[in-house]
Structure formats: C-alpha cells, structure tokens
Amino acid sequence: MQSILKDLLLLTLIIFTCIQFISINKMRIHIRKVEKIKEALYEIAYTIVHTQNEEELYDIILSTAIQLIPNASKGSILLLNEDNKFYFKTLIGYSERLKSISFSKEEIYISNMTSKISIIIKNPSKFDENFLSVDKNEYLRTNNALDIACTISSPIYIDDKLIGLINIDSTSKNKIFTEEDRTFMDYIKRDLELVLKNTHIQNKLKFMANYDELTGLINRRYFRKLFENEVKMIKECDDILSVVAIDINNFKIINDTYGHCMGDRALKKFAKVISSNVRGHICARISGDEFVIVLKNYSLEKANERVVHIKEEINKIKFGDLSLDFSYGIYCVNSRENIKPDEILIMADREMYKDKKKFHCNI
C-alpha cells in the first residue's frame, strides 16, 4: 500500500513538475515576444522622431504592427476627421482608392467597442454586410477589401480623445487571431499612443514657434527666415518677387465698437480669404492687423490684379455696419537689384502708407 502511495506521489510530482515546466516555458516565450515588441517599438520611436513626413509616420506604425502580430497579412489606419467621419490614412495590402470613402462610427467596429482595448472581429465581412450600405459594400468588394477572415481592431486615443483606429487583418481562415495576439496588440497600441502623443506635442510646439495661433498664418519670426531665403533664391535663379504689405483699415473701430472677440473673428476671416487666394506663396501675419504676401514670379501688374481680386472678396465681409477693407503696397524686386530683405519690406511699407493716406483722405 505504501509503495502504491509513493508511486502516486511521485507521479503527481512529475505531473506537477511538467505543468510547471510548460507554464515556465510559455512564460519565457511570452516574455521573449514582449521583449521583441519593445525592441521594435524603441526603434520605431526613434525613426518617428526623425520623420518629418506625416504619411511616412503612419506607414511606419502600420507596417510595424503587421510585422509584430503573427498571422497578420495586411491592415489599415483610419483617422477621425473634423466632419466626425473616419477616413483611411494609410493602407498596406489594399488599394489606395479606398482613401476616397469615409465611414461613420456606426459603420465600423468602433461603435461596438465598450472600452479602449483591442477587440477581435471574426468574419468582419459579415459585419460590413449588416452595417454598410450596398454601394459601400460593392465598392469594397470591387477593390478586394472584403477578403478578410479575421481582424484585430484597436481604437487610438490621445489624452482620452479618440483620434482613429488601427486594423490588423488576416486573410487566411486557418490563421485566426488569438487572445494572446489581442494582448500583444494592446501592448503595441499603448506604446504607439505614447509615440503619437509625443509627436503631437512636438508638432504643436513647432506650430507655436512658426505660426500665428489666431490666424494660422506664418508668424513674423518664421516669415523673416523664409523671406530671406526667397530673396537669395531670386538672385540665383533670375526670378522676380512681388512683396505685398497689407494693413486692415479701421480695425480699431471694429474692436472698439464690437469688442475684441469680434476683432479676432475679423482677423481670422481676413486671414482665411487672403491665404486661400495665394496658395503656394508666402502669407504671414506680421503684427496685429498687418500682413505680408510674397508672390514668387509675379510682376507688379500681375500682383496688383491678384490683390484687387482679394480686396473685392474682403469688401463683401460685414461686421455689423462696417465692411472689412485694407490698404496695400507692392514692391517688385528682380535678380539684378542689389537690395536687402529689410529694404524690400520698407519699400513695400512705403507704398502701403501711400494707399493708407488716400483711404483717410477719402473718408
């Protein structure tokens, strides 16, 4: 009897030891996978910090996630736009034509997510059939976007604000994602969110350093840097520049009559009109109600035509009983003139003050 008990105890010990060994081995494999993910994310963080192109940034994020999740073959990143709809930002394994369509929250997996963790969607094409319109389903089918056996879908948050969604897809019915894959995706997602937050902060700091916060136009400091480079370029390339100095008329009256909030609205509206009319050229806010436009390869006559058109649009804007208006001066410089950037701006300012004088005389 004692011999049988000893054998049973020995067998139990062996089984327990085997279970422990298997558990430890699984844990080691798990740790190695986590370490591999961490190493890859350290590398991606370094690459992203040195990447200026936003498109490239999201491509790096998506390709890294696909590489790290076993059985993943393609994927996509969708970002939430100002119209509260999701648009494809980057795709791997899919046609770029998909970037032309958008989705509401109800049309994608995010509407079924009750937390910030990743979820596994089995047979996602069935979901699409139930929640997408016939036209969208047909468009996806035409572009080979419904051949998905399984998806890991992860919401992307920055400071508790939903900014997008990353989908990692498997196209093989024999390669379905597991709970371990989903856990790994959450590791990746959390670190990617930190990287994106850091990138977002850096971009915001760059914007604050180079752009006017109210109007979104280039600020005085950044303008000087760009303008000096443009003056240098025209001398090297035998080009011409037309520099337009602009000053809003009666801006103080708008502020005094309707308040500074209305004044800010006027500045933003003014900036939007002039910038939309000079796309591809330099447009800056120099101080309170003073702006500068630099038109490359524009003669004096051509620049004046453009500014007159802008003036006509600006005059249509009303703030109470006041119409928005401005005075302007143009100085055209060519490659043969030996003139410094500051001198060019002074000449444009002089022309602007001549126009301003005419405006006051006509009041």
TrEMBL record:
**Pfam families named among the record's database cross-references:** GAF_2, GGDEF
Q: What residue stretches are annotated with the GGDEF domain? A: 239-363
Which PROSITE patterns does the record match to this protein?
Answer: GGDEF
Q: Check the record and name the CDD domains matching this protein.
A: GGDEF
- PANTHER family reported in the protein's UniProt record: DIGUANYLATE CYCLASE DGCM-RELATED, REGULATORY COMPONENTS OF SENSORY TRANSDUCTION SYSTEM
Q: What name does the UniProt record give this protein?
A: Sensor domain-containing diguanylate cyclase
